[in-house]
UniProtKB/TrEMBL annotation:
<dbReference type="InterPro" id="IPR036094">
    <property type="entry name" value="NadA_sf"/>
</dbReference>
<protein>
    <recommendedName>
        <fullName>Quinolinate synthase</fullName>
        <ecNumber>2.5.1.72</ecNumber>
    </recommendedName>
</protein>
<keyword id="KW-0411">Iron-sulfur</keyword>
<keyword id="KW-0808">Transferase</keyword>
<dbReference type="GO" id="GO:0051539">
    <property type="term" value="F:4 iron, 4 sulfur cluster binding"/>
</dbReference>
<comment type="pathway">
    <text>Cofactor biosynthesis; NAD(+) biosynthesis; quinolinate from iminoaspartate: step 1/1.</text>
</comment>
<keyword id="KW-0004">4Fe-4S</keyword>
<dbReference type="GO" id="GO:0034628">
    <property type="term" value="P:'de novo' NAD+ biosynthetic process from L-aspartate"/>
</dbReference>
<keyword id="KW-0479">Metal-binding</keyword>
<dbReference type="GO" id="GO:0046872">
    <property type="term" value="F:metal ion binding"/>
</dbReference>
<keyword id="KW-0662">Pyridine nucleotide biosynthesis</keyword>
<keyword id="KW-0408">Iron</keyword>
<dbReference type="GO" id="GO:0008987">
    <property type="term" value="F:quinolinate synthetase A activity"/>
</dbReference>
<dbReference type="Pfam" id="PF02445">
    <property type="entry name" value="NadA"/>
</dbReference>
<dbReference type="GO" id="GO:0005829">
    <property type="term" value="C:cytosol"/>
</dbReference>
<dbReference type="InterPro" id="IPR003473">
    <property type="entry name" value="NadA"/>
</dbReference>
Length: 305
């Protein structure tokens, strides 16, 4: 089948079977074209709680599918490619959080959404890159234990000088592969371009950015800016999507290293197989995990909306 034929069949079958396809911004453009909603982690979480369909396919990574199931346990939720996991979400488990709580008994525990639902049962609130600053600023607690992304955490801490932050090793291997040398090289090659980066990057990268924010934030900034050239310091696919959206502007990847292989695992054929009734993985979570994780995601949506 051609790409176009696959897309037509996916669109026909998802309507016939009452299926909603949610795609993260890092998915490829052929997937964007068949999705009901495309967005960043925060947008996906909100959409998951309001989508009317009975069946949901997550084209992204495992923690995103778990978030959908947590918010809509009555729905049938599928991860399009069962191999697609976020390495950062595997870096910390619930037991480690409980140990850290003993070390910092007065701290509010804030988890990045890139964590398992099981871990979320042991934290006070979760955040995404687009909602973290707003949520943490609005919290009454002055002491914050931020897990697991030390780079996102450090970026937030620098903007909340009135709070004390504690971190515990963790971060995104894709964004952490970028360094000041990559910035220098990209700026030398494109001296007129603005640098837009994701706050999962190291501080030596975000410190040099003209804008730092979530995937959706980066795209919005680039579209609304009067500038004509941009170096994109996040996953490669955002370069491609922006080039489609703004053909009159130029977008350059900061480095060929900035590829998330997990996000790239899901293909249009995976989506076709699921809507055709084969492949994918149905997500199941225990009632206890759903109850505990839902409280922390609900709090994020209430504070971050
Ligand atoms: P956002 O979609 O919140 O920008 O996060 C990027 C990411 O790495 C998701 O795994
Ligand atoms: Fe996880 Fe980083 Fe990939 Fe996002 S880009 S899914 S944080 S490894």
């Amino acid at each position: 089948m051609t790409t176009r034929e696959l897309q037509d069949e996916i669109i026909r079958l998802k309507k016939e079977k009452d299926i909603c396809i949610l795609a993260h911004a890092y998915q490829s453009h052929d997937i964007w074209e068949v999705a009901d909603y495309v967005g960043d982690s925060y947008g996906l979480a909100v959409e998951a709680s309001t989508a009317p369909q009975k069946n949901v396919i997550m084209s992204g990574v495992r923690f995103m599918a778990e978030t959908v199931k947590t918010l809509s346990p009555e729905k049938n939720v599928y991860l399009a490619n069962p191999m697609a996991g976020c390495p950062m979400a595997q870096q910390m488990d619930r037991e480690t959080v409980l140990e850290l709580r003993k070390q910092y008994p007065n701290a509010a525990v804030v988890a990045y959404i890139n964590t398992t639902s099981e871990l979320k049962t042991a934290v006070d609130v979760c955040v995404t890159s687009s909602s973290a600053l707003r949520i943490i600023r609005s919290m009454p607690e002055k002491e914050i234990l931020f897990i697991p992304d030390c780079n996102l955490g450090g970026w937030i801490a620098a903007q909340c000088p009135d709070k004390t932050f504690h971190f515990f090793k963790g971060g995104c291997p894709t964004h952490m592969s970028l360094n000041a040398g990559d910035v220098a090289k990209a700026k030398a090659a494109h001296p007129n371009a603005l640098l837009l980066v994701h706050p999962e990057c190291l501080a030596e990268v975000t410190a040099q950015a003209d804008y730092a924010g979530s995937t959706t934030g980066i795209m919005k900034f680039a579209k609304e800016s009067d500038a004509k050239e941009f170096i994109i310091g996040t996953e490669q696919s955002i370069v491609q999507h922006l080039q489609f959206d703004c053909p009159e502007k130029q977008f350059y990847s900061i480095s060929p290293k900035c590829v998330c292989h997990n996000m790239k695992m899901t293909t249009l054929v995976d989506l076709y197989n699921i809507v055709a009734g084969k492949g994918g993985e149905e997500i199941t979570l225990s009632d206890d995990v759903i109850r505990g994780a839902k409280a922390c995601i609900d709090r994020m949506i209430a504070l971050g909306g």
